[in-house]
Amino acid sequence: MAPTTRQPAEQPHPPDDRTPPDGAVADGAVAVRGKGRPRSAAADQAILDATREALAELGWGGLTMGDVAQRAGVAKTTLYRRWPSKSELVVDAIASLFDQLECTDRGSLQADIEAVVARFAELLTLPETQAALLALFAEGSRDPQLRRRIRERIVQPQKVLVELGRANAQARGEMDPDRDPAVAAEEVGIIFDTIAGTVEHRLLVSGEPVTADWIRRFTTLLLGPFPGLLR
Amino acid sequence: MAPTTRQPAEQPHPPDDRTPPDGAVADGAVAVRGKGRPRSAAADQAILDATREALAELGWGGLTMGDVAQRAGVAKTTLYRRWPSKSELVVDAIASLFDQLECTDRGSLQADIEAVVARFAELLTLPETQAALLALFAEGSRDPQLRRRIRERIVQPQKVLVELGRANAQARGEMDPDRDPAVAAEEVGIIFDTIAGTVEHRLLVSGEPVTADWIRRFTTLLLGPFPGLLR
DNA sequence: CAGATACGCTACGACCAGTAGCGAAAGAGC
DNA sequence: GCTCTTTCGCTACTGGTCGTAGCGTATCTG
């Protein structure tokens, strides 16, 4: 806090507050209107791709900024003009993968959850996510700014999926329609942590595979009494 | 693999294959019978304590071997004579905390689970575990030896707790006694990943607290139909 | 006492994150 | 076309870390 009073006044595209990785020209997004030479959007893409590639090959610990720059055909200083640190670069590189997640309405809550779990597990078996995800979470535990970025770009989009699934189920009449919204929101939180945490733990900590059969049993556990478990 | 054929023949206490951190003299453990000057058990303890302390203060990224050595009043080289790397040292430092977990029989499966979840959550709010656990899991994803050590010293003891809880419940007649042991083992695996993963995710990723109320709701979700969730 | 081993110390090699300063390139606005 | 602004690539550098080597000394066993 208490920013030193310096107001550099010479940061056209602020070094940390990143411009969106492009693709925004036709989006109606405000596109910042810089005056000088614009940043190369191609470089952005090349850097993110190179990051994922290096991550998959070398893991979090093996990835170096110099290596990424070389793979992307770009100077190392260019990386630091766009991302404030290695961690934040990796967040962005990984986040795009999680954008592919979606919650399609398959007619029942159980089917919806099974589909999203399967897709999520698939993402977590990619070598790049496997190498990066836990390292990012760990890094974020000591860096509030990084934590915020992780939440925004990786965690929140997943949570929205659970919320969406819940809304679909409610629309289908699978759930009590008179539920107190506050309570419902809390439940979404519990279920989100349960789904994401369990799949991550099984794949990344226990190191056991997530098969269709496992998904079915886990989802059943989530939605009702585990057959034969009690009584 | 394919170890270079060198057979140093001068490793009395092998540098990686650690001697148990002591406390074993009266345990009937075989106590290795070295011939020269024995390792200082006090140093072992001092190092592990210093590691936890540094972890709590500086986090995983901030912890350095030099600093730990200084806190422990020991030369840095001594650390490396006992642990092959920073990661493995931290595993041992953290593992001792998880030894405190236990599954006391409180008369019902729900009560047992609630107790163990509460205790687990308590451990995960310690700054030292908070700083180390995810970092270790991340590190382990690229290092099989470390992964093995983590499983042995941290994950497996937790899993045993779930198994124990299940046995207690079965003894109390809360569960089907004729259950196929193979299926039962798989179920223990699912439930273990669910409990550990969910609590970790909530505390370390979502960053939300684990209250008594949350524990009750989560356990209820685990054991039966979430009240009012479906239908 | 002799042999074996652990210990502390100092120094070192290799590597990496992140920064500094420059000249050159590439757009924007006129 | 010209100027102004900003980015880009390059090279070099700082500061810090892991992990190792070599030595003399301390401590234990037989």
How would you summarize the topology of this molecule?
The structure is a homodimer of 231-residue chains.
Chain A lengths: L40 H22 L2 H8 L3 H7 L3 H13 L10 H17 L1 H14 L3 H28 L9 H26 L5 H12 L8
Helix pairs in contact in A: 1-2, 1-4, 1-6, 4-6, 4-7, 5-7, 5-8, 5-9, 6-7, 7-8
The structure holds a DNA duplex (30 and 30 nucleotides).
Could you please describe the fold and organization of this structure?
Two copies of one chain form a homodimer. By secondary structure, chain A is an all-alpha fold. Chain A has two domains: 38-82, Homeodomain-like (Arc Repressor Mutant, subunit A); 95-223, Orthogonal Bundle (Tetracycline Repressor, domain 2). Chain A contains nine helices and no strands. Chain A has helices at residues 41-62, 65-72, 76-82, 86-98, 109-125, 127-140, 144-171, 181-206, 212-223. Chain A is elongated. The first copy, chain A, starts with 40 loop residues before the first helix and ends in an 8-residue tail after the last helix. At the A-B interface, helix 1, helix 6, helix 7, helix 8 and helix 9 of A face helix 1, helix 6, helix 7, helix 8 and helix 9 of B.
Report the count of strand segments of chain A. 0
Question: What assembly state would you assign to the polypeptide chains in this entry?
Answer: homodimer
Low-confidence stretches of chain A: 1-10, 18-31
CATH C-level class of the largest domain in chain A is Mainly Alpha
What's the architecture of the largest domain in chain A in CATH terms?
Orthogonal Bundle
Helix and strand element order of chain A:
HHHHHHHHH
Secondary structural class of chain A: mainly alpha
* Overall number of structural domains of chain A: 2
Total of helices of chain A:
9
